[in-house]
Amino acid sequence: MKKTIAPTVNEIVLREDDIIVSKTDLKGRITYANQTFCRIAGYTESELMGQPHSIIRHPDMPRAVFKLLWDTIAESREIFAYVKNMAKNGDSYWVFAHVTPSYDMNHNIIGYHSNRRCPDRNIIENAIAPINAATLQEEKRHRNGQQALAAGFGFLVNFLKSKNTTYDELIFSL
Length: 174
What we know:
The protein has 174 residues and is α+β, with helices and mostly antiparallel strands.
């Protein structure tokens, strides 16, 4: 049985030169984690191998953002996103993530690669955190997991439409 980790109020702040790198298979199971990932997340490499990347998912992150991320990379496109993660001890840490598909020699997607860096705090506080909070609030209004995901995703899509922008355009405009 998986131990549930409770979020703390503590935040880990990445250094400017920190680069978190991970690779996953097509199902999102971790196949590579660099030492920076292990240090910041508080896991050993062996604890991370084979685990779903969602092992570091912070409950403040709306599922809709991850749906957008997975939909994008499944279409052979890269995505940039601001993500709040959770370390093994419950502490949080924000990252600016760049996620791309990985290909074999025949150009078939065989997994995913992510580099994460220290995000701009002003962007987190003034744009991303409020959008995520509103999206998460919409998800929480629904008890059923699929309904919650659909409602949150619909909210996010409608928010972007109201700003006459795409997710990519929003992220790069901040």
